[in-house]
Prior knowledge:
Blueprint: H1 3-15, H2 22-34, H3 39-49, H4 62-78, H5 84-96, H6 101-115
Helix pairs in contact: 1-2, 1-3, 1-4, 2-4, 4-5
Amino acid sequence: MRHLDHLKNLVIMASADGSLTEREIALLVDRCADLGLEEADLGKAVQFALSDEASLKLPTDRKEQLSMLGDLMRVMAADGQLSEVEKRLFALAAAKMNVDREELDRLIDELLDKEGR
């Protein structure tokens, strides 16, 4: 999966509730740098997320799928609130990638351990 597509997915999730908070933007900027992308790429991702063509492009590789879901969870949690639209978007992405409840629970535990609970 292309890094720009990954970033676009994160921006779609961050903007799913209708706003981008300062914490979400900071997370997106950091993730953009981690992916080796530039500020202009983040602008493209935001523009795409706000367009009528916005849709998640999901990876097919299992490791990339779990990484994507982990990043989506971080974005969902960044503003301290989980909106229903974010939850539905996440559930849809997980279902389309055939990630079962057990894998999601394991992924959540891993993320909590990394974040220091």
